[in-house]
Amino acid sequence: MRAAVYFKHGKPEDVLQAVEVEDPKRPEHNEVLIRVLLRPVHHGDLLGVSGRYQSGAVVPKEGVRVGFEGYGIVEEAGDGVDLKPGTRVAFFPGKGAWSEKAIVSAEYVTEIPDDVSDEAAAQLHVNPLTAALLLRAVETSGAKPGRDVLVLTAAGSAVARLLIGLLLDRGFDVVGVVRREAGVNELNVVFPDLPVVSTDKPGWQENVISAADGHPIGVVLDPVGGETASAAAGLLAQGGSLVSYGDLSGQPISVSALYFSTRDIRISGVTVGRWASLPVKIRKADLKLAIELAAGKPELFPVEKTFDLADVGKAAALVEMPGKTGTVLLSSY
């Protein structure tokens, strides 16, 4: 079978390649062998390829197989698993998702209903579950619908679009922040009444304050870091929270120490990498929400472009480019 592998850290488009590897073993107890058909390419996947997660880590001679999320068909189920061959499933986390076949613990395999498309199923876990984690962060921050305004940077991203939909459904006022003026119009196609501010205009922070219309900015949700997160943190009201969930800029967040003592702001972070360790009850509720989103709001699961697995380097290059309005997928139908 084919698998996306890297043999050294570097620019993902340069070091990722699809190679022939041995098929996986038969599934053991509570395992599922999945013929993977589609898998999303996430920025977080590429951080691992570039070596930013573990600086100085040695790549083994046999290389590292990439990917943790995918969609496919059950090929064989081990003992104790109630999934028939041919069943449509999505999975996360599962090692080597960018392979044509993967062995996954049944605990992390989700059966896909008929009203969810293949493309949405491929995106069922990482982005919606991140949105669910962020929604809980908002709820525990003390922010209240009708009182506090929530600011989302990188508001055109897949996670942000899902989260905006969830927040608006719950009565929150939201201001989106994007880095290009064209992104304002793109986001307003999906959310026509959403105030959206572009950082490519000087004084964008004042535009965010104006869009808040006198309401306190209670939470900033940011996957960018660097100057964007630093500036957005300065907009927080008394007791406000900055919730970080990414590092797109690769730059540190710089916040005045006075913000902590005089405004009592808080900084926290979430990552889907910790989702699998949550209690089963919470994970089931999150997956139920993800399936409802995929079935009921397919417009929040757009696809930018689908590449064959052989073109994994090209797919990685597109993910790193600005101006996307959908998720990049790798296919092996």
Task: Describe what this molecule looks like in 3D.
The protein has 333 residues and is α/β, with parallel strands linked by helices. The chain folds into two domains: 153 residues, Quinone Oxidoreductase, Chain A, domain 1 (Alpha-Beta Complex), CATH 3.90.180.10; 146 residues, NAD(P)-binding Rossmann-like Domain (Rossmann fold), CATH 3.40.50. Helices cover 31% and strands 24% of the residues. It has eleven helices and 16 strands. The strands form three sheets. Strands 3, 5, 6, 7, 8, 15 and 16 form a seven-stranded mixed β-sheet that branches. The protein has a six-stranded parallel β-sheet with strand order 11-10-9-12-13-14, sandwiched between helices. α11 links the parallel β15 and β16. α4 crosses α5. The longest helix has 17 residues.
Largest sheet: 7 strands, mixed
Number of continuous helical runs: 11
Shape: globular
- Count of folded domains: 2
CATH level-four homologous superfamily name of the largest domain: Medium-chain alcohol dehydrogenases, catalytic domain
Enumerate the spans where pLDDT stays under 50 for 5 or more consecutive residues: none
Number of strands: 16
Kindly identify the CATH topology of the largest domain: Quinone Oxidoreductase, Chain A, domain 1
Query: What is the rounded distance between the termini?
Result: 13 Å
User: Whole-number radius of gyration?
Assistant: 20 Å
Structural class: alpha/beta
